[in-house]
Amino acid sequence: MSNLDDYRIEARNWLASMAGMFGCEARHGLSHEDDLALGREYMRARHDAGFSGINWPVEFGGQGLSHIEKVVFETEEMQFGMPVGYFGISLGMPVPILMRYGLGENGEHLPWVKERVLRALRGEEIWCQLFSEPAGGSDLAGLRTRAETDGNGWRLNGQKLWTSWAQYSDYGVIIARTDPTVAKHNGLTYFWVDMKAAGVEVRPIKLAGGDSHVNEVFFDDVRLEDSQRMSPVGGGFAVAMATLMIERYVATDSGGFGPHLDLFIDLMRRLEVNERPALGDGRVRSAIARNHAMRAGLDSITTRAMLMLQAGMEPGPEGALNKLVSVRSRQKLSELAIDLMGADGLQFDPSASQKQDWGSSWINSPTGRIAGGADEMLLNTIAERILGLPQDHRPDKGVAFNQIPA
Amino acid sequence: MSILYDEGQEAIANESARILEARVNKARQLELLEMVGEYDETFWHTAVEQGWTALAIGEEYGGLGLGLVELGLVAQAAGAIISGAPFLTSGYGVAHAIETLGTDEIRANWLPGLAAGQFRAAVCFAENNSPLPMRPLVSSSEDRLSGRKPAVTGGIKADLALVYASIDGGPALVLAPLDATRRTAVASFDNSRLFADIDFDGTPCHLLVSGEDARRLALDVLARMAVVTAHEQVGGAQTLLTTARDYALTRKAFGQPIGAFQSVKHRIAELYGQLEIARANCINAASKAGQEGFLVAAADARLSATEAYDTAARDCVQIHGGIGVTWEQGLHLHMRRTRSLASEQGNMLFWEDLLVDELTGVAA
Ligand SMILES: Cc1cc2nc3c(=O)[nH]c(=O)nc-3n(C[C@H](O)[C@H](O)[C@H](O)COP(=O)(O)OP(=O)(O)OC[C@H]3O[C@@H](n4cnc5c(N)ncnc54)[C@H](O)[C@@H]3O)c2cc1C
């Protein structure tokens, strides 16, 4: 316990010492390119300081600690607004999955993987996750990108969609259909792909909030070696699921990655409703009270989960609630904040931080309810996995992929 | 105090659930709904026999010296089968006030009897629709109490009351034996709560504290009882969630279990979210008793547990269709209990305001 407290303090001290160079304020007004460059510098410094790959094996350049230390560090880091967003997916899913499934049958790719991992940890290379497509989002197994055999390798054709940071990525993990004649989950295979290879084209998509961090990615006869295959042929869906689950314990935020409730209270201290102090208004008080009760519950769930991990126990499934509950509440609270600000609420700075600014929090909150599992899918997961309720009716169950009506 | 239950606490939770399930009888509960001024003595006898009345009272007074965490676990088991005797909660509130404020003599007079289940105690704070009135109409001198407290939980059978009264224009907490008072049972939708109007008419009483301290301590007692109640609500909500889930798995319509329809399935998943948030708030609040931030934690627990239990009752009945509204099926036992528990420790607007007072320092 006290070791962990020490670790937290050590982390916080290091982060505080870096904040001036890399934090919110240092980043304000930077172009994307400059911000990314700053991010790469930060990642190098972070690796040098021993706060990267915290729960990864030492032989891969990690620290060999547990996920508890990782979550502690991430929770602290979140408060400084460091330029880590570009590397979040890369280090969160593709790279850990590469360490597990990319080594080759006899570990023949180990040196290559080690080099990739180290470069990713130091921010020199970025990996993206090429799963979703126009025809495969929530229903991932509905994807249509094809990989067909080509001599001793493969040839990739199709389109991915919503790929975060693809425009800055060096590599990606991808799932493609290798057999359309079997049921949809059974005809998929998992590869890694060189994003700089001939035939790969990345086109950024501008999102509602104004930024363009997601992309369409087109593959036109892109050659893959069989050594790039990370699953058995037809066994890709299981590795895709493993990818989505690999980070079981991540830093959570009961504020839904939006502003803290204290910021709402501070705002209300300064505002009036109908020319009377806003904090005296019952509706405002109700909003504060209800949000507090909800967030305190989520925080308490998180604290208990951490204590259980420390005690070597398995935390309960209620941790799955965080994103579902917190992002929805962030969305509504942001709406209320903007409305009550009146004229000031109409001012909008698209580059403002989502954790500090209500306009930015609001316009970007739908993303949080869709990416990483839409609300409805999370409800299905809770209902089916935790509560044992039946699966939805699925007309495509057991039907060969190429027989499913488009 | 840690917010992970230890082995002893887990044992209390399991044991109390096991005993209550074996002893509580739904037919009797239904019958009692139509009997004003009666309740099921089984729970009270069980509580005494199992030492639940003694749980949170100090060992020097014949108690077990445990606290709100343990009592909360018993309350949760009681809530799960709607058995909770009102005195589990109010007895704790009164004993806590006596232990905190009473003279040696007062403690010696009452605490051993409360621990042993010899006396039942009620809490008389509310007046009209105010959970803790600014200027109570019931007034007191040093040793006499006058005025009416309406719909006191457990009022018809209690031996002793902790009363929030006015003294010299300020608030006070006094202790009054109830044998010499006039009590009128209130016909209610949840009669086994034993609601009664109590008329004090020069009733002998004992002053525990007056002035600003009285309000502060009354709030503390109310918050502690709210946390016990919140555990009871979580227990009830858990039962309703499980009942709804089980029914959704077995009842079929349009060729599939109704639990395969998302409007049913997602309703239950949302309820799970409310329940787990409430449960986490309860555990946190119970562990904070007597510490800084307790009022905030208690308000969080009160608000979220009431919301969870209310939603659970609404949704569980809905998921049952017609069978859910029958007398025999008994879901209305929970429905009724949601409203009595929501009212007893003060309505939600009161708790929202209290929470925001604590968070911002700005009063409503
Ligand atoms: C900002 C952002 C970044 C992203 N980054 C990446 C990335 O890096 N890599 C990647 O692979 N993907 C990424 N995604 C894609 C993301 O995973 C998908 O958007 C998500 O899975 C939803 O899929 P969809 O957009 O196709 O919506 P759909 O699946 O078409 O869903 C539309 C609506 O239908 C509902 N719905 C679908 N199925 C059901 C059902 N069975 N029951 C009830 N409702 C249902 C959904 O809940 C939703 O409300 C990103 C998305 C966003 C917005």
How is the topology of this model organized?
The complex is a heterodimer of chains A (406) and B (364).
Chain A: H1 2-22, H2 24-27, H3 32-48, H4 67-78, H5 85-92, H6 94-101, H7 110-121, E1 127-130, E2 146-150, E3 153-164, E4 171-177, E5 188-194, E6 200-205, E7 214-225, H8 236-245, H9 261-270, E8 272-273, E9 276-277, H10 282-310, H11 321-341, H12 358-370, H13 375-386
Parallel strand pairs in A: 1-4
Antiparallel strand pairs in A: 2-3, 3-7, 4-5, 6-7, 8-9
Chain B: H1 7-23, H2 26-33, H3 41-49, H4 68-80, H5 86-101, H6 104-115, E1 121-124, E2 139-140, E3 144-152, E4 160-167, E5 170-177, E6 182-185, E7 196-204, E8 206-210, H7 212-250, E9 252-253, E10 256-257, H8 262-287, H9 294-320, H10 331-344, H11 348-360
Parallel strand pairs in B: 1-4
Antiparallel strand pairs in B: 2-3, 3-7, 4-5, 5-8, 6-7, 9-10
Helix pairs in contact in B: 1-4, 4-7, 5-6, 5-7, 7-8, 7-9, 7-10, 8-9, 9-10, 9-11
The structure holds flavin-adenine dinucleotide (FAD).
What is the multimeric organization of the chains shown?
heterodimer
Helix content of chain B: 40-55%
Distance between the termini of chain B: 32 Å
Task: Using a beta-carbon cutoff below 8 angstroms, give the protein chain pair with the largest interface and the number of residues from each chain.
Answer: A-B, 44 and 45 residues
Structural class of chain B: alpha+beta
Are any ligands bound, and if so which? Answer: flavin-adenine dinucleotide
Structural class of chain A comes to: alpha+beta
CATH fold group of the largest domain in chain B? Butyryl-CoA Dehydrogenase, subunit A, domain 3
Global shape of chain B: globular
* Share of residues in strands of chain B: 5-15%
Helices and strands of chain A, in order, run as HHHHHHHEEEEEEEHHEEHHHH
Q: In the CATH scheme, what's the topology name of the largest domain in chain A? A: Butyryl-CoA Dehydrogenase, subunit A, domain 3
Q: What is the helix content of chain A?
A: 40-55%
